[in-house]
Specification:
The chain is of the alpha/beta class and 347 residues long. The chain has 15 helices and ten strands. The protein has two domains: 185 residues, 2-Layer Sandwich (Nucleotidyltransferase, domain 5), CATH 3.30.420.10; 128 residues, 3-Layer(aba) Sandwich (Rossmann fold), CATH 3.40.50. It starts with a strand and ends with a helix.
């Protein structure tokens, strides 16, 4: 952690104080992009100040009391943008320096905008502010106090768009209130449900890939799929995971293996009409694997190669799959039940 920026305003968004508390992270800065291609293009994070400025700043333990006073002061509301990320940094710093965790409640303006605009995926602060039409020409992105003020501008714009006061906005979208205590983060309502559904979908996807990796594949005389590796979009394993388990077994009986790495696949099977959007596997193939061995086919083309219908695959059964389905459904049920219980008792 190298900076803690904030703006203090009244309910009419008049700024009372703005400050960027710089911190010596006592660690190496990693400002370059993770992928080699982006590093070669010179992409990465640009620090708001020269590195030597951070190195001359006090360490976290020296500014802990000041940050604690800011966060835990009575009679104020903490409003953040994707604030759970900020909380995690704070918790990590507290743990590292053996300081007590902060305890406070907050309101997440990113989630409010997501619901207001009908967007389900993560969206950057810069993109939101551009869509709302606010002028940020005098601000420096990734400078913590400027980011805080831009977050304030998002809240202000949403109040104007929905014709409510700040208190009214918080009341209207109260499900996006959260709290942190003891190093843990808890959200109310829909946000908890979304996080739980994401966790459940990832669990199912992991079950599918583990099953695929462990499924023995033989050789079938005359099968056009002998030795072939099949891949699909992640939605198959997350949303239609029971069908995926049956498909994996049927493919294995035809001499083919289902895999998760598109780079090693012979066939990419398109199961859904909305595939190819930015961020998914088909988009990655079209952008990065043009001219490779991988062939994109429809699900009907796959069924033809298998010599089976979708109905026959759906009706495929085995004791191993039945047992795995029952166990996975129990685990998914536990995840969703935990959120339901927490919401019923007020988060």
């Amino acid at each position: 952690m190298c900076s803690f920026g904030y703006v203090l305003t009244d309910e009419n968004f008049c700024i009372l104080k703005k400050e960027d508390i710089l911190i010596n992270p006592e660690a190496q800065f990693c400002t370059q992009a993770r992928s080699k291609k982006k590093r070669e293009e010179g992409k990465g994070i640009r620090l708001a100040y020269p590195e030597k400025v951070f190195r001359k700043s006090p360490v976290f333990s020296k500014v802990y009391d000041k940050i604690k006073e800011i966060l835990e002061k009575d009679g104020q509301t903490i409003i953040g943008f994707s604030h759970s990320n900020d909380v995690r940094y704070l918790c990590t710093a507290c743990k590292r320096y053996k300081m007590p965790y902060f305890t406070y409640k907050f309101f997440d303006i990113q989630d409010v905008y997501r619901e207001y605009s009908g967007i389900t995926d993560q969206i950057s602060l810069e993109k939101i502010i551009n869509e709302l039409g606010a002028d940020i020409g005098n601000y420096t992105l990734h400078k913590s106090d400027d980011d805080a003020e831009i977050s304030m501008l998002v809240a202000k714009a949403l109040c104007e768009k929905t014709s409510v006061t700040l208190s009214g906005l918080i009341e209207k979208y109260s499900r996006y209130k959260g709290e942190t205590s003891g190093g843990e983060i808890k959200y109310n309502g829909i946000d908890s449900e979304r996080a739980a559904v994401k966790k459940a979908r990832n669990l199912c996807s992991g079950v599918v890939l583990t099953f695929a990796n462990n499924r023995k594949v033989g050789y079938v005389k005359g099968s056009p799929l002998n030795g072939k590796k099949i891949c699909s979009g992640t939605a198959l394993g997350k949303d239609d995971w029971i069908f995926a388990l049956k498909l994996i077994s049927c493919l294995a009986e035809k001499g083919a293996r289902y895999i998760g790495n598109v780079r090693d696949a012979d066939f990419y099977v398109r199961f859904y009409d909305n595939e190819g959007e930015k961020g998914d596997r088909l988009y990655y193939i079209n952008k990065n694997l043009q001219g490779s061995k991988i062939k994109i086919i429809s699900k009907d083309e796959l069924y033809k190669l298998m010599g089976m219908s979708e109905k026959e695959i759906s009706e495929f059964t085995s004791p191993k799959i039945d047992k795995l389905v029952a166990q996975t459904e129990r685990n998914v049920g536990k995840i969703l039940k935990a959120v339901s219980e927490r919401n019923r008792h007020g988060g």
